[in-house]
Amino acid sequence: xxxxxxxxEMSKQLIAEIVSNHGKIDILINNAGINITGPIESxxxxxxxxxxxxxxxxxxxxxxxxxxxxxxxxSGIIINITSIAGYLGxxxxxxxxxxxxxxxxxxxxxxxxxxxxxxxxxxxxPGDYKTEILSNRVDSNIxxxxxxxxxxxxxxxxxxxxxxxxxxxxxxADLVLKIIKQKNPKINYLVGGFLEKKITLKSxxxxxxxxxIIMKLYN
Length: 219
Description:
single chain; 4-stranded parallel β-sheet; globular
């Protein structure tokens, strides 16, 4: 069964059909996402809105659609596949990072609001995994004369290399299953390489120092 997650009515109808056929929805996993790269100065606002539409608002629509049933049953778990990129601002990935950061934060708010209904909301933030997001990513075509061209090209080549040799996405699937089986899961999970998972410790370092680390990491 296919779904265009940006079609709000289609999402609601699908959820209603599942409830009609199976009685309820116990688990929701939000995993749809798109990425776009480019200098923020030249990126179209309309393109950035598309990223937020898919990575943020469309998921909220699905969450709002399943919550009434979960509340009535006083049980349920919502698992959001976000990104480690939501914990920091990567160069030329600004729109993507911002969309994932927004999803992280609103999920934390939801987790508090839904506690009395015995509904858990969990964020899983993967690092570099070999998925289809690389082939589906929209890269900005900036001219050779652009003041950002040299740095942008280096970052894209660096990211492509990391993703092409990324980790096995089954690691994330295994973590999802583990969380589903837990009675009291954590709110936030980071999964990936050692350094990637330490990214949330950035508050322990001066901002400028951490920025230099990111710049070095992405050439």
